[in-house]
Amino acid sequence: MIGAGAAGLYALHRVRGLGLSAKVFEKGDGVGGTWYWNRYPGARCDVESWDYCYTFSEELEREWEWTERFPAQPELERYFNYVADRFDLRRDIEFNTRIDQARYDDEQNRWLISMSSGETVSTRFLISAAGCLSEVNTPHFEGVDTFAGQQIHTARWPKGGLDVTGMRVGVIGTGSTGTQVIPQLAKQADHMFVFQRTAQFAIPARNRPLDDDTLEELKHNYHERWELKRSSSTGMGRRPTEASSALEVDEATRNRAFEDSWARGGPGFARAFSDVMTNPESNQIASEFVREKIREKVDDPDVADTLVGIDHPLGARRLIVEIDYFETYNRPNVTLVDAAANPIEEITPQGLRTTEGSYDLDLIVYATGFDGMTGALLAMDIQGVGGRALRDKWADGAGAYLGLVASGFPNLFMITGPGSPAVYSNVIFSIEQHVEWITDCLAHMLENGLDRIDSDPEAEAEWTRGVHDIANASIIGKTDSWWTGSNIEGKSKGVTFYLGGTNIYREICEEIAANNYKGFIFQPG
Ligand code: N01
Questions:
Q1: What is the distance in A from the centroid of ligand 1 to the CA of 320?
Q2: What is the pTM for the complete model shown?
Q3: 10 Cα distance to chain centroid
Q4: What separation in Å is there between the alpha carbon of 178 and the centre of ligand 1?
Q5: Ligand 1 pocket member 312 (CB < 6 A)
Q6: Closest residue by Cα to residue 466 from 390, 395, 399
Q7: CA–CA distances in Å: residue 212 to residues 63, 65, 219, 502
Q8: What confidence tier does 424 reach under pLDDT thresholds 50, 70, 90?
Q9: CA–CA distances in Å: residue 263 to residues 196, 204, 296
């Protein structure tokens, strides 16, 4: 298995249960994946703690007590460490080990793996748990090597922290990460310059500590929440919205519903009405509501204009959940730079230069995101049947049958691979579903003396077409963002995750398995 994040840990636990020997190779020196690497100040999950956790063990759910509605990185890292110890997983994890190459040997039907340590191993099955947001994106600015100060990507924040007291800090990027790190660093920095290229919608988190009554209720409702997660289209344990179209109600009712949704906070804002994501007119009304709320928070009307100059519909990019973000621009030590009107031209020895001026800096923070969905897989040299590189197969767009197996790459399973709901869901719940499907499939192979699984190229092509058709019909497919791969130079554009709903996806996966794994090709040993 590749990676000891949420996916790798659970996969190891389940694979062991099949009686197979297993090993996880992990680049870092600890478990937790995303929550191991992203330790920048303010790093926090924007899915509620009671949803963003494993459900496979009722005992685990009863033992673990979350402290906040939206858990912060240290708590999440503690949780994954607890899971690793609770299920005795560490003894089969090799830390500080990066997989550089994985090559399929046709004759032996084995994967030959080369590691950064120089070590090589051979395995019958390879499971990628490399994650959808683990390969960092650091844009290549001119002069980047000349900078005399310090530069850091948010996903590579040092374990001991970084004291920015008295520093002139430049932050590039205002996505989910930038929005979290900016308010925290602004409290310490001498001065902060925020370089915003695309203004974005952000909803207040309304984070809060969880009191004893809430914790008791969460434990009591464990089974009901699990059922809700299974039946929901995003894997969240909440009841489906009973909302109507935003256009069916009068203005006062509509405003009340948006106000209520705003007051609840969190990523579910758009659920105030059933058609915010599908009807441009409803979306426009919701968007204006949020713009107005942002304006109210920002003292300087020019700064507010730059923050609400949003060029895409609400929800077409991942909705940001923020804490004190917009208020940060009321601080005297924070300057917002419109990097759309005045793009960054180069990094200089002293700092950074845009088309409009120069900024002297001691620290540049890249909150510039990730090469999503495929970055971590393609960072490795993966070669399938006949030595064909995965990079070549996916050069014009990534896809795998059900997001699980890419044809021509037998016995390589992908957890949350391209073609699965992955990042458009409560990812940890999707991970559990994938791991369970994969390990059930492995059990089927072991029971039936099957040695090799591949996907049928036609089944894969049809599945991938379906994924694209759904995405192209949605506002998500029509908007540039990391969701469409347009943040990475040279990457083929298009949504690679399944937007049809995790509940539907699960049913399809189950049906295919029940139908003798239709679309997969097995070979006996
Ligand atoms: O990355 P992003 P992220 N010049 O790609 C800017 C998850 N997550 O790390 O929008 C100037 O969204 C870029 O500008 P633009 C979550 O799924 C979750 O913030 O491309 N700017 C943008 O502002 C999230 O969606 C949590 O114009 C440049 C920013 O960098 C995903 O991770 C927390 C630039 C990148 O935004 C990614 O979020 C954090 C350039 N050359 C992350 N290149 C929570 O759970 C890039 N940018 C809350």
A1: 10
A2: 0.97
A3: 17
A4: 7
A5: no
A6: 399
A7: 14, 10, 11, 31
A8: very high
A9: 27, 8, 15
